[in-house]
Structure formats: structure tokens, C-alpha cells
């Protein structure tokens, strides 16, 4: 695992795959925190639970099933469309255009994708607010994944097959270590995005993944800067 980008390690890459939340925008913007609160409220309202109990159950479902949505579907048969609509009804005004990131993404040769456990609408609104939506070839969301979230291996297989991506020529940027286990096993180069200054402020960043060290090739707290150090060698 390395902290400094080694441009030569990316010379083979033809497909660039980016997670969305806490990856294309920094964690300190707290955008996903709004979704997190909405999910807790949904669980509380749907199951008629106090917020504290709903919060605990939400996290249990996330850890067991990969997303709260998947857990609620498996255990309680909820309407996925309704859930996605409600939890993504958030305020995007805290996101500001990031032209430096946009230029860095544009300079990368090959195709660029957003691969998210959220829905397409949320991904589009987020990327548009950042000023980078037009830099991506496509968005692979939870609906395209047939509601099976990362880190499930079959979801990565579906994504790669849909776009005809050779995993050995692709790189995955993610903020959750466990979501890099399958990409690494498939032969993708992996980059973990952490909060700025490498100071984790939420437990999900450093989840207790037994395969963590083997599944992460690079770590950075500055995605735009990292990409900028790779692109010039092209």
C-alpha cells in the first residue's frame, strides 16, 4: 500500500471507476450525513422504532447486507423506489464546483464511470453540483446493479460485463476498504480515499476488514491532486 501516486502503475489503465459519496467530494462536506439521517428516520417510521433503536438497526443492516436498503428489502420487503426517493431528498447547496477535479478527470485517457450504491438521480445531482457530470461516460447505480450493492462480487461482475471492461486495465477509487476487496481480487488497481489529512472522522473509513491491507494499492486524501500526478505522463 502506497500513499504517493506512482504514475507508472497507472500506465495500463483504460477505464477509471469512481465511487460517488465521500469519494468525488470530500467527507467534510457532510453531504452523505444528510442521507444517513434520512435513512435512520425511514427505519424509525417504517418499523415504528425510537430513533436510537432505528439507528442501531440501520447500522446492523448496513454491515450485514452492504446497504440499509438491501437489508430492509430482505427482512421487511420495503419498496426500493420509495426508499431511494426519500433518502436522497437532500440539500446539495453545500457542494461547490470543483474545476481542478474536473480538469484532472478530463485529462485521464480512456473511459470514466461513476459506480455507486446510491441511485442515478443522486449521482447526477451530485456530479452536476461539482461541475463534473459531463466528464463521465456513464453512471452505474444501485438500480443497474439490480439492487445488489457493493461489496457483492456479482455487482462488480455485472458492471464490468455491462461496459466490456477488462478488470486488469481498470482502477477503482473508493472510500470504503471493504468495497475494494472484490475489485482487487478481480485484478483492478485500487485507491482508497480517506478524509483530509488522513484523519478518519467516521468509523466506516477504517472498517475492520481482514483483507484491508491486501486490497488497497494506494491511499490518498486528495483525489484531484492524486489524479493530477498521474495524468501528465500520458
Question: What does this molecule look like?
Answer:
The protein is α/β, with parallel strands linked by helices and 234 residues long. It contains ten helices and six strands, in the order βαααααβαβαβαβαβα. It has a six-stranded parallel beta sheet with strand order 3-2-1-4-5-6, with helices on one face. β4, α8 and β5 form a beta-alpha-beta unit. α1 crosses α2 and α2 crosses α3. The longest helix is centred in the first third of the chain and has 17 residues. The two termini are 23 Å apart. About 3% of the residues have low confidence.
Helicity range: 40-55%
Strand-pairing-aware structural class: alpha/beta
User: What fraction strand?
Assistant: 5-15%
Strand order of the largest sheet: 3-2-1-4-5-6
Uncertain residue ranges: 200-206
Tally of helical segments: 10
What is the total tally of β strands?
A: 6
Order of helices and strands: EHHHHHEHEHEHEHEH
Average the pLDDT over all residues and give the rounded result.
Answer: 90
Cα-to-Cα separation, first versus last residue: 23 Å
Protein traits:
single chain, 234 residues, alpha/beta, six-stranded parallel beta sheet, 10 helices, 41% helix
Sum this structure up briefly.
The chain has 234 residues and is α/β, with parallel strands linked by helices.
Amino acid at each position: 500500500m502506497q500513499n504517493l501516486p506512482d504514475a507508472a502503475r497507472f500506465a495500463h489503465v483504460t477505464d477509471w471507476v469512481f465511487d460517488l459519496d465521500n469519494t468525488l467530494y470530500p467527507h467534510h462536506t457532510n453531504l452523505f450525513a444528510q442521507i444517513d439521517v434520512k435513512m435512520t428516520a425511514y427505519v424509525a417510521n417504517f418499523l415504528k422504532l425510537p430513533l436510537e433503536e432505528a439507528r442501531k438497526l440501520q447500522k446492523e443492516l448496513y454491515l450485514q447486507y452492504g446497504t440499509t436498503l438491501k437489508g430492509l428489502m430482505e427482512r421487511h420487503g420495503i419498496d426500493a423506489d420509495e426508499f431511494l426517493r426519500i433518502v436522497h431528498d437532500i440539500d446539495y447547496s453545500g457542494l461547490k464546483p470543483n474545476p481542478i477535479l474536473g480538469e484532472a478527470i478530463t485529462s485521464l485517457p480512456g473511459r470514466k464511470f461513476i459506480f455507486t450504491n446510491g441511485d442515478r438521480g443522486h449521482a447526477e445531482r451530485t456530479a452536476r453540483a461539482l461541475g463534473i457530470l459531463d466528464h463521465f461516460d456513464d453512471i452505474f447505480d444501485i438500480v443497474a446493479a439490480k439492487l445488489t450493492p457493493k461489496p457483492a462480487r456479482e455487482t462488480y461482475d455485472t458492471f464490468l460485463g455491462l461496459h466490456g471492461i477488462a478488470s486488469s486495465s481498470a482502477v477503482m477509487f473508493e472510500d470504503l476498504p471493504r468495497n475494494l476487496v472484490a475489485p482487487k481480487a478481480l485484478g483492478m488497481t485500487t485507491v482508497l480515499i480517506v478524509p483530509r489529512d488522513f484523519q478518519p472522522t467516521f468509523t466506516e473509513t477504517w472498517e475492520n476488514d481482514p483483507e484491508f491491507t491486501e486490497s488497497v494499492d494506494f491511499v490518498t486524501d486528495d483525489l484531484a491532486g492524486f489524479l493530477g500526478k498521474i495524468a501528465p505522463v500520458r
